[in-house]
């Protein structure tokens, strides 16, 4: 089952998801055809739960929106874990103020 790189396939519905870690309070913006299985993989190292998700018609649509959000909030990237070599998706971690989070959540409507 495809849960990783959106460049691997561009057909089929895909979720844009927003996760929050219960311990660190950081967020992850990512895409997957199955967010629950993605959370299970990530929770080897985190304690994420699903905050919001939005289904998009293709993986390419989801990837494009994901990349736009990553770029828009690049100044909010959570950098404390970037040196951890085994950590998957570490460039997709962010820290948001309440007002910034409200802007992010607007993309999931």
Contiguous runs where pLDDT drops below 50 for at least 5 residues? none
Number of E-type strands: 4
- Euclidean distance between termini CA atoms: 26 Å
Strand content: 15-25%
What strand order characterises the main sheet? Answer: 3-1-2-4
* Most strands sheet: 4 strands, antiparallel
| Count of individual helical segments | 3
User: How does the overall form come out from the CA principal axes?
Assistant: globular
Q: Which class do the helix and strand fractions yield?
A: alpha+beta
Averaging pLDDT over every residue, what do you get?
A: 89
Using only C-alpha atoms, the radius of gyration works out to 13 Å
Q: What is the chain-wise order of helices and strands? A: EEHEHEH
Kindly state the percentage of residues in helix: 25-40%
Q: How would you describe the overall organization of this protein?
A:
- The chain has 109 residues and is α+β, with helices and mostly antiparallel strands.
- Helices cover 28% and strands 23% of the residues.
- The protein is built from three helices and four strands, in the order ββαβαβα.
- The protein has helices at 35-42, 59-72, 98-106, and strands spanning 14-21, 27-32, 48-56, 93-94.
- A four-stranded antiparallel β-sheet has the order 3-1-2-4.
- Strand 1 (14-21) and strand 2 form a beta hairpin.
- The protein is globular, with a radius of gyration of 13 Å.
């Amino acid at each position: 089952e495809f849960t990783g790189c959106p460049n691997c396939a561009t057909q089929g519905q895909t979720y844009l998801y927003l996760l929050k870690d219960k311990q660190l309070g950081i967020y992850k913006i990512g895409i997957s055809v199955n967010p629950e299985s993605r959370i299970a993989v990530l929770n080897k190292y985190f304690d994420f739960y699903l905050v919001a998700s939005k289904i998009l018609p293709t993986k390419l649509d989801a990837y494009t929106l994901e990349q736009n959000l990553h770029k828009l909030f690049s100044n909010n990237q959570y950098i404390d874990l970037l040196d951890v070599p085994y950590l998957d998706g570490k460039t997709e971690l962010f820290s948001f103020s309440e007002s910034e989070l409200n802007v992010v959540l607007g993309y999931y409507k």
